[in-house]
Amino acid sequence: MKNLKFQHPKSKNMERPKAIFMLGPTASGKTDLALHLVELLPVLEVISVDSAMVYQGMDIGTAKPSAVILSKVPHHLIDIRKPGDIYSVADFVTDALDLMRSISSKGKVPLLVGGTMLYFKSLLTGLAALPEVFPEVRDKVRSLAREEGGKAVYAALKLVDPVSAARLHPNDTQRITRALEVCWQTSEPFSSWLYRHSGQQTLSLTEQIYEQFEFEVLSLGILPLNRAKLHEVIEARFKTMLELGFLEEVRRFYHEGQLSLALPSMRCVGYRQAWEYLAGEWDYNTMVAKALAATRQLAKRQLTWLKTWPSLTHLYCGDTLNSKQAHTLVASFLR
To answer: Is residue 46 helix, strand or coil?
Structure first.
């Protein structure tokens, strides 16, 4: 992987191009607010920051904007991969920066909207370049996978780097393989190598990170007025998804026979639980309960990120003043 740690190309005395981040938990109304802002401020151009919306055909379960909306307000980084593909954090950082620079070169302002907090963080902090892995090391790992299976590769990683193994899902073959290759190449745990070569400053967000980023950023956080209300919205939205045909959407993937729960696409919240229901692991009511619980946990993790996010201007889900406040904040920032 090429080095993705970016430095501002201009001197401190030169004005940086501007960008807007709109972050929030699932079901917080980010998309609707973004559409409202673009309508009022056509200079804005939307980039999706959502690890599920990148996949084609995953429309209902991701609450993806409709085709009509996308025709009126195009969103970058939606429907750019097939569900059987892998789209990594590094892919996002590369794509997003390329788009931000292109949008700025046209005299417009990128508006990044989504809830995949790791994407936002990695965009700001950059990613450490992985060491070059010699062909003989890569062949050794692949031979282990071919002869003994993915479980053996995961077991090998647990022996040399239990920290990385605990962080990765046992079926996440790509990342497990990459981590083991680095361990065997460098003779040290991948987790230790990543920490040492990334630098401690890239593992947490600080005010200074915004100063080092090549764009001047206004960060808007869409937060719930209370957790219970957000949970009510999550439940209502999932029931609407089911009425719109969410199970049929997953059933098509299930019966195609080309996907599995080992893929990031089918591990997305809601999709995993629906897949397991179709496989006969749960009854319908249990599937619904598990999907809702997983979505609430996702929202909780997103809110935990936002609690420590620096330079975040708070707006609130369901607040009737949101649109006006957001417009005022953005218009002032752009001036």
So the answer is: strand
- Count CB-CB contacts under 10 A for residue 141: 22
The angle subtended at Cα 58 by Cα 300 and Cα 89, nearest 5°, is: 60
Q: HSE, CB side, 13 Å, CA atoms: give it for residue 254.
A: 17
Give domain limits for the chain.
Answer: 18-128+200-334, 135-198
Q: What single DSSP character describes residue 214?
A: S
Burial of 208 (0-12, 13-18, 19+ CB in 10 A): exposed
pLDDT (0 to 100) of residue 2: 36
Residue 128 pLDDT level (bands cut at 50, 70, 90): low
Q: Which fold has domain 135-198?
A: Histone, subunit A (1.10.20)
What is the CATH code of the structural domain delimited by 18-128+200-334?
3.40.50.300
Matching residue, tokens 């809110």:
303
Q: How far apart are CA 223 and CA 303, in angstroms?
A: 8
Q: Which of 214, 187, 23 is nearest to 112 (CA)?
A: 23
The predicted model scores a pTM of 0.79
Starting from the edge strand earliest in sequence, which strands make up the sheet with 312-316, in order? 75-76, 44-49, 109-114, 18-23, 216-223, 312-316
